[in-house]
Please model this.
Amino acid sequence: MVRCGDIVEQSIRLPSGNGPIMLHGRALRYIDEVARQGSIRKAAKTLHVAASAVNRYILELEEELQAPIFERLPRGLKLTSSGEILIQHIRETLQAHQRMRAQIQSLKGLNRGEVVLATMATLAAGRIAEIVAAYREKHPQVSLRIMVGDRTTVAEMVALGQADLAIAYNLPDDSRLQRAAEFRHALGAVVAPAHPLANRKTVRMSDCLLYPLVLADRSLSLREVVEAAAPARATLVPVVETNSMELMKRLARTTPHITFLNRLDVDREMATGDLVFIPLTGTGSLQRLNILHRARGSLSPAGSHFMQFAQERLLASFDES
Model:
């Protein structure tokens, strides 16, 4: 990813009715930042330049393209259809420039870089935090930026070039994205050690429905997986619905509540004896943990190295479970 303060000597050539337009590094950064901020004033403040200079670049480019880039709204600026095409091209150019610089530095043996990872809050607080800490211990020269969102937002961050890669559950298929790895894990019932079901080696979903259910709400892909595991004609009636996995686990510690997660989500609580994980039988419902990056272009050396490290760590975790 390219930070606003980077000096970019890259330029791109755009077609127009009056011949090709050359956009140089400064204009690329100005337009990219305005698109991110939705405001010329905010973009200028971030870039440490005068707002009039940013506005001038935009107006000149719109005149040369003979098409508006931004729609002027009372609350700020919004990309037009032409602007969406332009900004995608600009970000691809900025990212290509960053990759080129990183590859050259890698050849020099510096191995520095930045990796931007998009993930879900449920993973960021657990498995991703562990992977990041382990990676930073071995490679302190690489900086990491973790961005959190739901599965749609996470996929869009990568597709739009706002993140280098994504690690998240049940990401949808998208022609703009390349699936680098997928790990599948069955759901289980999660209960307190004193729960009546805690001593079972496996449990059926129908047995779980006899107890107060704490379920992920419909904003989480986990809810779809849980509902797919329910018996035909059964109705799931939760006593609590939430988008917080931490709350789900906290309530599961109080008998007789029961929730549904995969083993990786509760491995720390299992190690401390706070929760019990019981595999569900009679269902083929799986949670898919995906690692994705953009289909076009290539990852920076740091991004590629981190992705490989994360894959190895996740594979080891799934093997252990």
